[in-house]
Amino acid sequence: MTLNTQREKEPLRRRGSTPIPPAKFCQHSSWTRDPQLPSPSAQTNPEKPRTQRSHPPLGQSASYHPGDKSLHYRAQWSSDSEDDSQSDSDCVHRVVLLGDHGVGKTSLAGIFAGITEKDEQPGEDTYERTLTVDGEKTTLIVMDTWENDKLEGEDSSSQDDCLKVGSAYVIVYSVTDRSSFDSASELRITLRRARQAENLPIILVGNKSDLVRSREVAVEEGRACAVVFDCKFIETSASLQHNVSELFEGVVRQIRLRRDGREVVERRRSIYKRKESVTQKARRFLDRLVARNNQRMAVKVRSKSCHDLAVL
Ligand SMILES: Nc1nc2c(ncn2[C@@H]2O[C@H](COP(=O)(O)OP(=O)(O)OP(=O)(O)O)[C@@H](O)[C@H]2O)c(=O)[nH]1
Questions:
Q1: Distance separating alpha carbons of residues 144 and 125, to the nearest angstrom
Q2: ipTM greater than cut 0.90
Q3: pLDDT tens digits for the chain (312 residues)?
Q4: Which residues line ligand 1 (CB under 6 A)?
Q5: How buried is 311 (Cβ within 10 angstroms: 0-12 exposed, 13-18 middle, 19+ buried)?
Q6: What residue ranges do the domains of the chain occupy?
Q7: Partners of 141 in the beta sheet?
Q8: 16 C-alpha to center of ligand 1: Å?
Q9: What's the CATH fold of domain 91-267?
Q10: Which of 98, 100, 107, 147 to mutate to test the pocket of ligand 1 (most atoms within 8 A of CB)?
């Protein structure tokens, strides 16, 4: 994996209120977007100026591909150093950020969007970006539209919309704020109620991991919560841009695992993942084997795997 810090084009931004044409979305495994089609937003707003931004580091795995003219209106980052010409699909998925005020949703969305300057606040609340993960392109539309504090009797339609439209959800809490952790659990329950029958990718994110001294929620608590609520877990620091690329690449992998099935995704990933040693692989295999016959072990393995965003 390489880090490419070349200048890149600004990612597409939308206002949350701007309707997104449903035809853009890949809710089904068979849907593939025609890369020759112009962006729907480019059609509705052809005059929209696009300024250049520098790409943030995005962990250690970012690389931008400015030569791709068919996707000129979108920014991309890649988890691979390989040539992307082999990419075989380009689906679009909505990822909704949920969580209390001040936990860092906008900051995470800003990093996703490629906003680097500290004092530059994201002006919009919906961002589109194409990621190349394990050699395949996927476009995410990250929605930072959640309004947490609807009062009793107030119209909750925007919350309902958020709970309906996502192909994946990122529930953020701050590790320095226990009440935000409690809210995250409530949000998980609300989401489960709203989308009962669906096996949605949901990632619980403990943000602000850099604030070591004011930590109120231990990493083990986050992990245990993810096991109980059957979702994935990662700690991030938007300030240090730690684990942010891993988070969004993990979202892509979780979407694909549900779309393609476990074997296909894991095989594809293994081609690209060369860092894992034979010993690590063998340990993981043995853990699973033992877990099949041991309920308690199964919980242990699940708690280990809940922070591996590349497996189901
Ligand atoms: N130290 C530290 N501060 C962070 C981190 N992420 C966000 N912040 C700060 O926390 C504050 C709130 O961040 P936002 O991104 O606006 O949080 P939000 O969840 O979008 O908040 P609302 O828009 O009110 O819902 C800002 O001052 C950020 O700079 C982080 O990882 N570490």
A1: 5
A2: yes
A3: 333 433 344 455 544 444 444 444 554 333 333 334 344 344 434 443 433 333 333 322 333 233 333 332 345 555 554 444 444 445 799 999 999 999 999 999 999 998 866 556 656 789 999 999 988 899 999 999 888 766 555 666 778 888 989 999 999 999 999 999 999 999 999 998 999 888 899 999 999 999 999 999 999 999 999 999 999 999 999 999 999 999 999 999 999 988 877 666 667 667 666 556 677 777 777 777 766 666 565 555 555 577 788 887
A4: 99, 101-107, 207-208, 210-211, 237-239
A5: middle
A6: 91-267
A7: 94, 128
A8: 19
A9: Rossmann fold (3.40.50)
A10: 107
